[in-house]
Design brief:
Bound molecules: zinc ion
CATH class of the largest domain: Alpha Beta
Strand content: 15-25%
Number of strands: 18
Structural class: alpha/beta
Number of domains: 2
Oligomer: single chain
Distance between the termini: 57 Å
CATH architecture of the largest domain: 3-Layer(aba) Sandwich
CATH superfamily of the largest domain: Zn peptidases
Shape: elongated
Largest sheet: 8 strands, mixed
Length: 491
C-alpha cells in the first residue's frame, strides 16, 4: 500500500514536471541577469574580424604614416580614434569639453631622402639600417670608430672613449651598458648611462659628428643640431667589423664580461645622409573618453583601459606598428563599444585612454601623471595594453608589492577566455619601458597586459597587419572587457 502511494506521489510529480514547459511558455520571459546582459553585449560587439579590420586600417601607410608623436600622420590617427569615441558614445571626462588632453612636445621627422653608405656601398634599409629618430638634418661623412657602449663613467672606472680620438668621426655604439647584474643598487648606478639621450650627448661632448647606433629604431633619443645618426642592425655591425680581426658579438660579450673597454678605429668610412625637420612647438594628443558608472557614489571612482596609439613615423620608410600598438587600440575600441552597448553598466566609471608619445619616451603618460585629470586616489585600476595581436597566451606584469591587481584579470580569463596566463612581478628599477611602468612608478594600481607565445616583430617592417591573429585579438578584448567589469564592480 505504502509502495503504491509512493508510486502515485511519484506519478504526480512526474505529471507536474511534464506540464512544466507549457506553463513556462505562458509566463513572461525571465529578466536577464547582469551577466547575461554583459555577455550579449560582448558577443555582439567584440568580434575578432572587426578588431582585425581596425588594426589593418590604423596600419595604413598613406593615411597615418607610422603615427609619430607630433606629426601630421599621428594627428590624423588621433582624429580617427576620437571620431570612433564619438560614434561609440563615450563621454568626455567630468568638467572637460572634449576627449583631448594635449601636451607640448618636440618632433623630429624625416622629410626627405635618407641613406647610409659604408665604404661606398649603399646599405639596405631595414636589413642594415634605419633613420635616426631624432637625427639632425644633414650629412656626416667620416671614419667609423667603434666606441663600445659610448659610456664615460670615471666613478665606475669605465670609459669607452679612453684612448681613442673621435673628433670629426662617426662613432659606432652598442645600446645599454656593460653591466650584467640585476641587483637593484647596481642597476641604479648604471641607469643614467643606459639612456639613449646620454649616448648622443656623450658622443657630441667627445667631438663626434655622427653615430651608427646598434639598437632598435625609435624617436626616443636626444637631438643635437650638429649630430647626424642612423640605427644599424647586427648585420651591418658585423660587416663593419669584417677584416678587423675581431667579431662584433664576441667584442660586446667581452666588454660585458671584463668591463674593460675595447674601442678602436675601424679604418672604414661611412656616409650618413638624413633629411629631417625638427620642431620645438609640436603637440601630442592623449584621448580620454568615459562610460559613466551606474552607482551614484562609486561612479566617481575609475577603472582605466589604456593603450598607446603612436609609433615610429617614417624612418624613412613605413613601419606599421600593427602589433605595437594598433592591436591594443583596436581591442580598446572594441571593449568601449561593448561596454557602452551593454544594458547594464558597472558601478565605477570606465575611462578609455589613448596615449601619445610612448615611443618618444613615454611622454604622454608622463604628462598625464604630472597633470592628472581625475584625482589619482580615485583610480581603482589601470589596465595598460601592449602588443596584444599575436600569441597563444597572455602575460601580465604588475608591481611586485601590489599583486592584488592581477585578480581581476585572472578571474576574467578563468571564467570566459581560458588562455594560458603568465604573471611577472616587476621592480621597475631600470628605465621604464611601458606606459604601465610610468603609472606604477607614480603609485597607480596597474597591470601591463601583453599577448605572448607567438612570433612577433618589434620595431621593424614585419610588424604588419597580415600576421595579426583575429582569434587572439578577440580573446584579448573579451578578457579585458571582463577584467574591466570585475574591477569596476569590485567591493
Ligand atoms: Zn608599444
Amino acid at each position: 500500500m505504502r509502495t503504491f502511494r509512493t508510486f502515485l506521489a511519484a506519478m504526480a510529480v512526474l505529471t507536474l514536471v511534464a506540464v512544466q514547459p507549457a506553463a513556462a511558455q505562458r509566463r513572461a520571459p525571465q529578466p536577464k541577469t547582469p551577466e547575461r546582459m554583459y555577455l550579449d553585449a560582448m558577443f555582439e560587439n567584440i568580434k575578432g574580424t572587426e578588431i582585425f579590420d581596425c588594426v589593418r586600417l590604423l596600419s595604413d601607410s598613406t593615411l597615418f604614416q607610422g603615427r609619430l608623436c607630433g606629426s601630421e600622420g599621428m594627428r590624423r590617427a588621433v582624429d580617427w580614434v576620437s571620431s570612433r569615441y564619438a560614434e561609440i558614445g563615450l563621454q568626455p571626462l567630468p568638467g572637460r569639453p572634449d576627449y583631448f588632453l594635449n601636451f607640448p612636445t618636440v618632433c623630429t621627422e624625416v622629410t626627405g631622402p635618407c641613406s647610409l653608405t659604408v665604404e661606398g656601398r649603399t646599405c639596405t634599409w631595414a636589413k642594415e639600417w634605419y633613420a635616426g629618430g631624432t637625427s639632425a638634418n644633414g650629412v656626416a661623412e667620416a671614419e667609423i670608430v667603434f666606441a663600445g657602449f659610448g659610456v664615460s663613467a670615471p666613478e665606475l672606472g669605465y670609459d669607452d672613449y679612453a684612448g681613442i680620438d673621435v673628433r670629426g668621426k662617426i662613432v659606432l655604439i652598442e645600446g645599454e651598458t656593460p653591466n650584467t647584474s640585476r641587483n637593484d643598487d647596481t642597476l641604479r648606478i648604471w641607469y643614467p648611462y643606459t639612456l639613449h639621450q646620454y649616448k648622443v650627448a656623450n658622443a657630441v661632448a667627445h667631438g663626434a659628428i655622427g653615430m651608427l647606433y646598434r639598437w632598435v629604431p625609435g624617436p626616443n633619443n636626444g637631438y643635437d643640431p650638429g649630430f647626424v645618426y642612423a640605427y644599424i642592425t647586427d648585420n651591418l655591425a658585423d660587416t663593419i667589423f669584417e677584416g678587423s680581426g675581431r667579431d662584433y658579438d664576441a667584442t660586446i660579450r667581452q666588454l660585458r664580461a671584463k668591463k674593460r673597454p675595447a674601442s678602436f678605429a675601424t679604418g672604414k668610412k661611412a656616409r650618413i645622409q638624413m633629411t629631417m625637420t625638427h620642431r620645438e612647438d609640436a603637440v601630442g594628443h592623449n584621448l580620454l573618453g568615459m562610460v559613466r558608472g551606474s552607482d551614484p557614489e562609486l561612479c566617481n571612482e575609475y577603472v582605466i583601459l589604456s593603450a598607446h596609439l603612436d609609433h615610429l613615423g617614417m624612418i624613412p620608410y613605413h613601419i606599421a606598428g600593427a602589433n605595437d600598438n594598433n592591436s591594443s587600440t583596436a581591442c580598446l575600441l572594441a571593449v568601449a563599444k561593448a561596454l557602452q552597448a551593454s544594458q547594464v553598466k558597472p558601478k565605477r566609471s570606465v575611462i578609455f585612454l589613448s596615449l601619445d608619445g610612448e615611443e618618444a619616451g613615454l611622454t604622454g603618460s608622463l604628462y598625464l601623471t604630472a597633470h592628472p585629470v581625475i584625482p589619482p586616489e580615485n583610480v581603482k585600476l589601470i589596465l595598460n595594453l601592449e602588443q596584444v595581436g599575436i600569441g597563444e597566451g597572455f602575460s601580465v606584469g604588475y608591481k611586485y608589492d601590489s599583486p592584488e591587481v592581477i585578480e581581476y584579470v585572472k578571474r576574467a580569463n578563468d571564467q570566459y577566455v581560458h588562455r594560458p596566463l603568465d604573471f611577472f612581478p616587476n621592480r621597475y628599477v631600470t628605465r621604464p619601458r611601458t606606459d604601465g611602468a610610468v603609472f606604477m612608478k607614480n603609485g597607480y594600481p596597474t597591470v601591463d597586459f601583453y599577448a605572448e607565445g607567438g612570433i612577433s616583430y618589434y620595431h621593424e617592417p614585419r610588424d604588419n597587419w597580415e600576421i595579426q591573429d583575429p582569434s587572439t585579438l578577440q580573446d584579448v578584448a573579451r578578457a579585458l572587457y571582463w577584467s574591466v567589469i570585475n574591477a569596476a564592480n569590485a567591493d
